[in-house]
Queue: 2 jobs
Job 1
Amino acid sequence: MPNLVVHTPAIRGCEVDPPPLPPPDASFDELVAAVDAQIPRDGRELVLAAFSFGALVALRLAATSDCTIRQIVLFDPMVVPLLPLMGFDDDYHRIRPVLEDYATGAERGEADAAALAIDAWLGDGAYASSPPKLKEMFERWGPTNARQARATFAMDFSLATFAGISAPIAAHYGAAGPPIWKSFAAAAAGLSGPNGSIQAIPGANHAMLATHANEIATVLHAAIERAR
């Protein structure tokens, strides 16, 4: 595409593998500000795309940044704090204790703590059936994920937190993943009211970046075209 520039800002603590730990006292908004600071102010309008926890960061960034954002495209958005704000209370009360227990286990260095989150994201038994190298990766990222969770839960989210969003939100979720991903997508897209949309990616789950790259690329291409 002519005149297309791609920026890939990283969330603090997620820049490299193995991950460096973000500061233990880093607030959620500090994580958002660190991402915003990586976006060049060159006058270009943006299509903002994000995956998983990055979606919550992207939504807060869209509400606070001085960049011009034309489209917001999310993939399996892990937007836990949005669930009660958008009417998904039952989902919230099911998933938050799981993430609290995961964060506590990861902070303690418990090797099997990752099973709590992985089974929640990919389905029951997903962690047990994962190959050893994948389990090692889950465990390696546990402390970083725990700090992100703590920063998120420490923030007092409300609908006003996202009131600055003006771009339409298109949220995509893996149809083969647990049902909560559809709730996450609906909660995120709901922030832009009638301009929001949700769509399933057939056959995908939370591993979609590895398994459905072509489908994701097609979605992004369409979003960029809409923004022109």
Note: The two ends are 11 Å apart (CA to CA).
Job 2
Amino acid sequence: MNYNLFKLLLFVSFFVLSDCSQKPTIGNIVPDHKWSYEDLKSEYKQCRGRGQLISKGTLRGKLTFFFTVRDDSTYIQFRDFLGRRTLYLQLLGNEVYAWDILQDKWFLTSQIQSKYPFLIVLEPTDLTRYFWGIDPQFKGKEHPKEFIFDHKSISVTFQTTPGNVGPMVSKAMIQINDNQNQIEIEIEEREYGMSYPRLIRAIPPTILHN
């Protein structure tokens, strides 16, 4: 074999083997970084996204939603399968305000928790951490992950998936009465540092005073 040709083949082989030994990068590189809640808020200030809420069991249904979270507050707009705006939620600290748009009614925290008892376990601050992508963990809570409320056993679990800023919680699963009823809140898309300004609004005063 010609010596110069041999050197060329050796040179090319070296770069081919070097390239094959590296992991391929397709699209965004997902960093393996575990964020704390405070660091995430400090870095990005706000976050927006979309997802779906699916209920299974006696009350079957599916709603899509868009959300914006800023610091310790979350704003969520739900839509039904027809695309109609059905429910608007504000999670401000540890308070919840809900506006039933179709019925033109609003509800306070205690009224919402009475209607949806799992929200006593998954408090507004827990939900805000979830929408940021952080596992609420329930540390220091007076109640465990599974408890009895009005003869109903309720448990909450979370799933984590890779994201463009690292692994983040993307699904919350609430099981009621040993899987007889289940609610899933799944985040399908998150964009850090972005918001939906139209979601950050006040509930009309005429509704609040009805």
Note: Strands lie at 46-56, 61-70, 73-79, 85-92, 95-100, 105-107, 146-149, 152-161, 168-176, 181-192.
